Every structure is written in structure tokens, then in C-alpha cells.
Amino acid sequence: MSSQIANSAQLDRSGQRIVVDPVTRIEGHLRCEVNLDENNVIRNAVSSGTMWRGLEIILRGRDPRDAWAFTQRICGVCTGTHALTSVRAVENALGIQIPENAHIIRNIIQLTLYAQDHLVHFYHLHALDWVDVVSALKADPKGTSEIAQKISDWPLSSPGYFRDIQDRVRRFVESGQLGPFSNAYWGHPAYRLPPEVNLLAVAHYLEALDFQKEIVKIHTIYGGKNPHPNWLVGGVPCAINIHDTGAVGAVNMERLNLVGSIIERTIEFIDKVYLPDLMAIASFYKDWIYGGGLSSRAVLSYGDIPDRANDDSAENQLLPRGAIINGNLNEVHKVDLRNPNEIREFVTHSWYSYTDESKGLHPWEGVTEPNFVLGPNTRGDKTRIEALDEGAKYSWLKAPRWRGHAMEVGPLARWVIGYAKGIPEFKEPVDKTLTDLGLPVSALFSALGRTAARGLEASWAAHKLRAFHQRLIANLKAGNTATANTDKWDPKTWPKTAKGVGTTEAPRGALGHWVVIENGKIANYQAVVPTTWNGSPRDPKGNIGAFEAALLGTPLAIPDQPLEILRVLHSFDPCLACSTHLMGPGGEELIRVRVR
Amino acid sequence: MSTESFYAAMRRQGISRRAFLKFCSLTAASLGLAQNLVGQIAEALETKPRIPVLWLHGLECTCCSESFIRSAHPLASDVVLSMISLDYTDTLMAAAGHQAEAILDQIGEKHKGRYLLAVEGNPPLAQDGMSCIVGGRPFLEQLREVASDCLAVVAWGSCASFGCVQAAHPNPTQAVPVDRVIHDKPIIKVPGCPPIAEVMTSVIVYLLTFERLPELDRQGRPKMFYGQRIHDKCYRRPHFDAGQFVESWDDEGARKGYCLYKMGCKGPTTYNACSTVRWNAGVSFPIQSGHGCIGCSERDFWDKGSFYQHVTDTRVFGIEANADTVGIAAAAGVGTAIAVHAVASAIHRGKQRAGVQHSEGEQV
To answer: Which residues form the NADH:ubiquinone oxidoreductase-like 20kDa subunit domain (chain B) (predicted)?
Structure first.
């Protein structure tokens, strides 16, 4: 039973069906099902978001100045990025300009997230797809030390250091309690690193776990805490006081010094640990070219890290904005989030209903009614789903499309667009990475290419942090210390109705919030989120989303051990709490629950 | 840290077998367990150096897991490698799919009644529980199953403790806190959105060190971290007492670190350790960084009006009505503020003792 899908090869549902649920080492709840042919190659892929929380409906009737706090709780991994998108949307609706310092501090907070989130993704959510922890016990620590010193001048590299790490891991394994490492795929034939490199990666897994918490202290300084720092419509909440009485209660010289030192340590860790590890690991997987999916055909970025304050033009975004379709890298299309014909969401295969499900809706007019129904070919039932029916509704994610195309978003999309536009700071690192590994440009379009783009981006972000920190100091030196514009803080100053759009590039990709404000309250709120793009189910035309496309053609060495599936899915860094949402009339009777 | 068992460690320190069993018995009692479980606890401590922890995820945003790995003392890596056996957590575990699910069964059988259940997020009851599906089943079912044989439950964060954001009005998924579906186990609530990292790891280490639940308040929160208001330990408190308030963002008062009460700070009604332990290894906390507390560890904090409104006649405070009239550090107001504040605190303590109970039948 094979069928032609609009944007991909044949899908063949005849072979053995493999189910992975839960997909772990992601944010949220994701289910994945694939069909294998007789050679254990994936010929059909089904990605299902298995949670929704209804935050958009919860936002209705609330104060728009509070929306950042609600939307920030969409995700605690990419903490802050929804809040930034939200304050941008509200400011856009109400015509609020923010001071230059607030603009810089917001960029610093966003770039801090990039550095920390990408680092955690690489080591703690993705590395174990490539790194065999148990094999590290067989390593010669001297050999690990030699490799470490060859690829980097990071100081923690002595044989004794790696021996201590190895001893610690050995004691842990011999205790018989493997904790997060139990029941995994150690010894799987798809693992290719020599024991010495595995030990290096395990050591850095632990170092990165300890270091990531340092990076986010920048959020704590400017936002009071991490996860979920505090934001402000009109600027940032942290006042600056450099010269005067009471400076200890504000951003002062000591705080700025702390930020500066964290930035330098972050640059060092990413450039001396993360990137060399990425290259070392990639060099053993050069022929594992699977998982490209839509990345060579259809990618989208809204752009982010605006250079000047209060300028949302594409030219002002340091991370480029644009769309590539039909695999034509020579043309980067303009993207307009307000255009009703560009971004539309479909629910043909989503657990929601529209009056006419053959059509998509722009976020301005988006309606959503939850409608959890399992298709006729589902195996199992509501109490235990054995296999989903992808011919019917099968996911809590909607299917967003750009001019009808399913798009990939995220680090690889951003870097492909930067590369296609010929921007040196994107093109040169990509070319150098490919040259160092002896790979053609086509290698970029793979799971590993996606992972490499994320690493390059982490380094880019860390260096940009330094630049913005210096710009803030220069501003302060010039006597500019304003951090908030309160001209329109009072709702009495707002128009009766207002509409706004806010965008960011979240670490995982293009993120947009659309808000409608009426009589000082939120009348409508809609978020279209990176993993909704990447993890989307099919649309009425049969186009498949980025996850499903990337899985096709990937061979599994052992069908029962889905290591390669995890590799491909994790390369996207899925975030399911973000991607499932609800708005519209959800006014069903709430059942009273009896309590003890 | 060595991986010798608790029992071995105790014997090494000269504790007799008999004293050890007595200790197990006390442990059982303090955990609220029947005495027939003493043997099991003894066996666990004799043979198992690290207590198994199963960390389940319902409807949540993973901020609790992220906070947990921010812990500076102890480091999350030390907790995971040396103190507990974190056998299941969607966020960090290497295994996926049925290999991951099998761990729940394995631990459930092998360590029946001897593992901790940590819950991040909460179960939704709408749509037959299918707004949160794990392994093809409603999360609600998984939660009930794993809870049935656990020793105790740690409810991480405001989701598991009180419902949090997805349970805010009108709660479209009917998300409910963990204690609405688990009724027969001790539950420690560690609220906050997220909780402070060191508070999370301290709760774990406390359980391991003292072998009993921490003292809990009437809402099930550890008293040691949730016993006092942020306001009462706030370094900006003298400005409140002196009637010196931030009146507008980035004004003179903001730059001088005045009290954020008029900007909607919920410090006066929030019980948490932010103003003492602070965040991210003590670097700062929301008020220190210029924004009021939003009360994220309090029940229903999303549904108490805007974060920027200071409620002028809350049921626990009289002072607020006066903060406006006290004005911008008016000298005349200073005495008034202090006096009224003292009265307000006394009233508040009285109400606390009276125990304003949340009606349990109502929607969370």
C-alpha cells in the first residue's frame, strides 16, 4: 500500500510498523511511528504531538502586559523566548518604542538562551545518540588525553583527569544502578566512536552539565531568575544606576562585570569544548548522511537579534529572515507575517475541527476546537493506542504552511538562509567546517548538518553577546541609562482595538505571536511555534512536515532499538509543550472532581 | 562519594544491627508507612546505596527539570551520579519508547514500595485524559500506576502542587494537581514556577539525610523553605517601611532600589525562599533585578488579577490601602507606614492561624 505524497517520495505503509513512545530527551510528549521495508529502511513516518495545554484560551480577557508571563510558561527549556515574542507583539499592537538599552539587554538575554540551550541540547539531549557511555569504560585515558590536547587547548585534558572521570563512571555502572543511562542502546552497531572519544564526550557531558548553569546567570542578573526571568512591556524591568546612591539595587558596575566574565567563559567553553567535540564526533559519522528531510528544499526563518532598536525590517535582523522553497537556494523569498496568504494553519490531521478543513487559517483568524478522534485504522483505542491512523487525525499539532509549503525551521534553516544570502558570518564558518571534515555542501542537509549548524550558531551567539555587552557599556558611558518607556504603560492611553505581531527566532526556529487587544484586554492570542512547523502532521494536500520527511530513507540497524530514529528527531531539538496549543471556544462544561 | 550502602556506612560507624532496624522502623513511621514495610526498608538500605527515583512528566513546560540542573550545591551531576538513582525522567534518559517504559515496570516490581515518585506537571482530566498521552495511554493512568507502589511523592513546581498555568481560568484541559488523583501517599509539594534549584536538591538531600519527610505546612510545603513571606526577608523592606516606593518603571526610585510594592510586587503574599536563598547560586532574585514578585509559588497566582496591580484591599492586608496615600517617601507617611504595617502583619498572622482553607470541591 504505497501512496505519493505531495512534497516527498513514495510513502509505503506495508512493512513492519515500529512505535517509539515516549520519545525521550526532548521537551514535552512526542510519539513517532515508522514503517520499515525488508531492508529495515524507513518508508513511512508518522509524528504525533501527544499533549496540549490550551494556553491561548487562558490568555483571553487578561491584561496584555501580563501575557509575557503566561506565554513564557509555554516552555521552560527555551525560557524567555516566548516572553520576548509576547512583549514584541504587544508593543507592536500598541505602538510602543523601547529604549536602546532595553533593546540591547533583550538581545543579550536571547543570545544567552541560544548559548545555553544549544549547549544543553548537544550534550544532554542529543549526544547519547552518537556517544556510547559504556564504551568509554574501555578507553585508555592517555589516548583520550592525547585526542583532547590535539583538538583543543581546553585545560582539563590530562590523563589523570580522564582516568578520574572513567573511575567515577565505572563505579556508577558497577553499582548496577544506571539511572538515566539504563535500558539504553549501548553497544548498538550504529555507535562508531572509539572508546577514547566516547570518554572525552562523557567527561564533557558532565562538564557541560555543570557549566550551563553559569551561562544563565545573565538571565538572573537582568531578569531575576532562570528559568523564567522577568520581562516588561516597554523595556526591561532592571533599572541602571552606575554612579549614584542606591546603585546596589540596580544594574551597576559589579553586575556588568559579572555579565562580562560569564560571556568570556561562555565563549571559551563553546569554542574550546563544544565545537571541537562536534568536529571530533562528526568526523566518525561522515557517511551517516540521513535525516536531511526538507532542509535542502523548504526552509523558513523570521530573523532575529535586531541590530538597531525599534526596527523590524528584514535588513535589521542579524539572524537573517527569509524563505527558500522548491530547493532553489538561489532565491530567498521575503516573509510577511501579516499577509493572510503566507502563513496558514491546517487541521485535517490534527485533533481539532474547522468548519471547512480543506482550508488553512491565518493566525489572525485562527479558530480551534479540540476534537480528539482516532481514525478507523487505528490499532488499539483511547485506553491504549497501539498504532495511529495517519489517514485521519493523529496529532495535537496543527499543520502550519508557508504559501502552502511545509517548511523546516531552526538553526539549520537559519544557516542555510544565511548561506544562500551569502552573508560572510554564516557562509565562512559553514565552508570551513565542511572543508575541515572534507565534505561537500550537500552534507549540510542531514541530521548531523543540523547539529553542526546549531553548534556554529552557539558560537555565533556567544560572540554576539560580547559585542552587545560592549555596546551597552558604550551607551552607559555616553550617559544613556534609560531602560523603560512608560508613555503607554497605562491602559487608558491605548486605542480601543489593536492588533500586533511579535516574532523571534527561538533556539528551535521561527516563532510568532499574534495578539488582538480590545478595551485593554486580550481578545485573541495565537502562537505559531517552531516545533509546530517541524513536527507538523500532514495537510489536506498530503504534504508531510520536517520530522516525517527527515525520517524517510533512514535505515535502522536493529528495528527494535530506535537509535537512528532518535538521532534524526533529536537533531531538531523537539519542543512539544511549545507546539501544541488551543484557542477558540473551548467552553465545555468542566467536570467537578471529587477529592478525598 | 562512595557507593557503599547506607547499612554498610552505618555499621562502619559502629551502629549495631539492632539499632539499624530500629532506625528503619522509625523511618517507616515517619513516612507514614505500615510497620510491615520495615523489612523492605531495611533490605533497601542494606543492599541499595541509591534510592530509585521515577520522575514523571505530565502537562508542563519542563522548567522544573531545567531548574533542577541549575543546582550549584549540590551539583545536579552529583545528585544523579552519587545520591539517587534517577531511573526514569523523559528529559534526560538515554532510552526511549518501550525500553523507557520497561524501566517503570522493572523498578515497580524490583523496588515495590521503595522508590520515590517525582512528578513534574499535572494530569488533565478532560478528553478522557487524552490531552496528555504517554506510551499511547493517558498520562493520568501512568501516574496512578507508578504512584500505587511508591514510597512518597515529590510534587515539583506549581503545576504538580497547585495546577499552575494550564489550570488557570478556564482550565480547558481540566488539569489538576497531583494530590487530586493520588490520595494514599505522602506528598511533598515544592511549588514555584519553577522552584529554586537549590530548594529542589535540598528537599532530595533532606530525604536522604534525615530519612523522613521534611516538616510540612498546612498546604504540604516544606516549612524550611516556604515558611516565610518574601516580603519579610526582602532587602528592600526598609524602603517599604519608610514609604519609599518605585512609582513608575525606571524612575528615580527604581534606580535607587526602592520597594516595588506599588508596581504590583506580590512579595507580601508569597511564601518562598527567593529573598533568602535567591536564584542561580544566589546571584539575584526577581525583586533585586527590578521586577516585582509575581507570586509564582502561590496557589492560583495566575488568577489574582494583573501582576502589576497592587490589590488595595486584599483579605490579608490592610497596609496596601495606605501605600498610595503614604506617597513618594513623604516624611509624614513614614511613621504611618510602619505602624499600619505592624497591625497588618498581626491581622495576617491571625488569619494564618485561623487557616483560610481552600474549598476542596472547587475547580483548581
So the answer is: 61-207
> Based on the number of CB atoms within 10 Å of its own CB, is B93 exposed (0-12), middle (13-18) or buried (19 or more)?
buried
A381: β partners: A384
User: A412: which DSSP letter?
Assistant: H
According to DSSP, the residues that pair with B152 across neighbouring strands are B116
Q: Per the structure block, which three cell numbers stand in for A424?
A: 560572510
Is A249 near chain B, with CB under 8 Å?
A: yes
Are A213 and B197 within 8 A, CB to CB?
Answer: yes
Best mutation target among A100, A103, A225 (most B Cβ atoms within 10 Å) is: A225
- How does pLDDT run along chain B (364 residues), one tens digit per residue? 334 565 665 565 566 777 767 766 765 554 445 566 666 666 655 555 799 999 999 999 999 999 999 999 999 999 999 899 999 999 999 999 999 999 999 999 999 999 999 999 999 999 899 999 999 999 999 999 999 999 999 999 999 999 999 999 999 999 999 999 999 999 999 999 999 999 999 999 999 888 899 999 999 999 999 999 999 999 999 999 999 999 999 999 999 999 999 999 999 999 999 999 999 999 999 999 999 999 999 999 999 999 999 754 333 343 433 444 433 333 333 333 333 343 334 434 434 443 333 333 333 3
Compare CB distances from B249 to A19, A232, A562 and report the shortest one's residue. A232
CB B52 within 8 A of CB B44: no
Architecture (CATH level 2) of domain A8-122+245-572: Orthogonal Bundle (1.10)
For residue A132 the three cell numbers come to 556510547
The answer to whether the Cβ–Cβ distance between A184 and B93 falls below 8 Å is: yes
- Residue A585: how many CB atoms within 10 A of its CB? 9
The pLDDT, as a whole number, for residue B335 is: 36
Q: Is the Cβ pair A238, B289 closer than 8 Å? A: yes
At position A93, the amino acid (one-letter code) is A
Give residue B298's Cα distance to chain centre. 10
- What is the per-residue pLDDT for A585? 32
Distance from C-alpha of B277 to C-alpha of B280, rounded to nearest angstrom: 9
Residues 21-50 of A with CB under 8 A from B: 21-29, 31, 50
- Residue B296 labeled ligand binder: yes
For residue A345, the 8-state DSSP code is E
Please state, in angstroms and rounded to a whole number, the distance separating the CA atoms of residues A103 and A108: 9
* Helix spans in A382-446 (H): 411-420, 424-437
B63 annotated among ligand-binding-site residues: no
Are B70 and A23 an interchain contact pair (Cβ–Cβ within 8 Å)? no
- The reply to whether residue B96 touches residue A237, judged by beta carbons under 8 angstroms, is no
Cross-strand partners of A528: A512
- Provide the CA A21 distance to its chain's centre, in angstroms: 20
Cell of A92: 507592536
Identify all chain A residues contacting B57, using CB atoms and an 8 Å cutoff. 28-29
Q: Which of A16, A32, A28 is nearest to A388 (CA)?
A: A32
User: 30-69 in B: which are within 8 Å (CB) of A?
Assistant: 48-50, 52, 57, 59-67, 69
B93:A52 CB<8 A: no
By the 10 Å C-beta count (0-12 exposed, 13-18 middle, 19+ buried), A388 is classed as buried
Q: How far is CA B149 from CA A192, A342, B114, B141, B358, in A?
A: 40, 52, 8, 14, 29
Does residue B321 sit at the A interface (CB-CB below 8 Å)?
Answer: no
Please state the CATH superfamily assignment of the domain spanning residues B228-316 in this structure.
Cytochrome-c3 hydrogenase, C-terminal domain (4.10.480.10)
- In 3D space, the residue among A301, A278, A297, A275 whose CA is nearest the CA of residue A442 turns out to be A297
Which option is the CATH number for B6-222: 3.40.50.200, 3.40.50.700, 1.10.300.10, 3.40.430.10? Answer: 3.40.50.700
pTM for the full predicted model: 0.90
Which of A28, A225, A592 minimises the CB distance to B279? Answer: A225
Residue A579, pLDDT score: 75
Residue B91 sits at the chain A interface (C-beta within 8 Å)? yes
